[in-house]
Amino acid sequence: MPMPTARAQHPHKRRHPPTGGYARGDETRAKIVAAALEVFGTYGFAGASTRLLAEKAGVNLPALQYYFDGKAGVYLACAEHIAQRLEARLGPIIKDITHVLASEAPSREHLFALLHGFLDTYADLLVGEREVEDWVLFIIREQAHPTKAFDIIFDRVFHRAVRTCAMLVGPLLDLPSGDPKVLVRALAFIGQVLFFRTARAAVLRIQGWPDVKGDRLALVKSALREQVTAALGGAARAARRRRS
Amino acid sequence: MPMPTARAQHPHKRRHPPTGGYARGDETRAKIVAAALEVFGTYGFAGASTRLLAEKAGVNLPALQYYFDGKAGVYLACAEHIAQRLEARLGPIIKDITHVLASEAPSREHLFALLHGFLDTYADLLVGEREVEDWVLFIIREQAHPTKAFDIIFDRVFHRAVRTCAMLVGPLLDLPSGDPKVLVRALAFIGQVLFFRTARAAVLRIQGWPDVKGDRLALVKSALREQVTAALGGAARAARRRRS
DNA sequence: GTCTATAGTCGGATAGAC
DNA sequence: GTCTATCCGACTATAGAC
After folding, report:
1. Does A6 reside within a domain?
2. At A118, which CATH number?
C-alpha cells in the first residue's frame, strides 16, 4: 500500500549532529516541506514522485532520504506543518473564546459576536488564502483514508476548533455544548465555510466569479454571518424568549 | 502530467463491432468502471495503477486498453458513471421542483417542504450511501484541478442541483434566484450537507459515532432541516411578515 | 475478443565519491 | 553534509498467439 509507514522519523530530529548552528539544514527542510505540500496536495501520496518533490524543492534526490528518511517522512512533516500553521492562525481566537467563556456567562449578543469572529477568521484563512488550497486536499484525502497524518491534524486543530464552536452554539440553543445536536450545528457551520474552498471550481462557475477574494469574500462572509445568526434564533428573538 | 488526455474515447463506443448482442463487453466494462471508481477515489489518477485496476476488476491488463483505450479513458468513463448515477437519483426531485415552480407560485410552507425534500434526498444519497465515498474524493480532486471529467459532472449534475436549490431559496428571501446572495445561501446549504461526507472521519471522532446511518443520519438531517428553516426566517415568521 | 509475454520507462532508495 | 551514479522493482502500453 502506497501510504506513509512508521519508518518516518520526526522531521526535526537529525540523524547526525549538525556541524554547528541550525543554518543550512533547517532551511533545506523548510524548502522541501513547502514544495511537498504543493506536490502531495496535487497528486496525493501515491501520485507524488520523489523526483518531482526534489526538483520543486531545488534539492537533490538523496536529500529527501537524508532529512526525512524518505517520502513517508516528508509526508508526515507536511502534516506537522499544516497543524502548526493552522494552530498559529486559529489558536489566538480559540484562546480568546475559551477565556471569555471560562470567566463569565456572556450575553447572547456577546456569544454571537464571538461566533462571528471565529467563523470570519476561519473563512479568511480557508477560503481567502492561496496556500490552504494544498492543505485542504491533503486533509480531505486523510479524512477518507486516515493515516498518522490525520491524527496530527485532528488532535491539534480540528478537535479544538469544533469544540470551541460548539461551546458558543450550545448556550445559543440552550443545550449543553456536548449535545449531538449542538455538534451537528457546529459542524454544519464549519462545513458551509469550508465548502467554498473544497468546491471552489463549482462555486466560481455558478457565481461567474474569477476568484473568492476582496468584495466577493466579504459577500460570502456576510451572507454566512446572517445565515448563522438567523439559524440560531437571532439576538433579538432570543432576548424576547428570555423575557417570557 | 499524469492527467487524462484527449486520447480517451467514449466508453460505450466499441473499437470493433460486437460479435452480436451486448452481452460480455458491457458486463466487462461495468466491472472495470466499478473497480476503477474505488481505485481512482482512493489513489487519484496518478496514484492508481493499471495493474491494480485490472486486478480489482478481475480482468487482465490489456482489457483496459481494449475497452477504454487506456487509463485516461477509464477515468473519463468513471466521471460519466458518477454523473449518470447522480442524475438518476437527483433528477426526479429536481424535475418535481421545476415543475411545481413553473406552474404555480407556491406558498412559503410549500417552498420549505420542497427544499427539505431536496436536501433530505441529497443527504440520504451523499451522507448515507457507501458508494459515494469514492465519488466524493473523485469530485473534490477535480474541483482542485479540473479536467474534462469535471465538466461532465458539473454540467450534468452540480449546476442543475445548485440552480434548483436557489430557485427555492430566492423566493424565501424575497430575492431573485440568480442573486449572488441567494446563490451563496444555496451553496452553503449544499455544502453543509456535503461536509458530513467529506469530513466524515472528523465527524465520527467528534461525535463518537461508528457511522452516519439510521438514527444518526436522521439526527443530522433533522438538525440541518431545522437550521435551514430558521436560517430562511421560518414559515411562521414569514407569514407574519407578509401580513404586515 | 481474450490473454501471455515483453518492451521501454519511471519509481524509491542507496552506495560511495567528495 | 552533499551529490552523482546506479540498482532493481513497478509502471503503462503493446505485440502477437490463440
Report:
1. no
2. 1.10.357.10
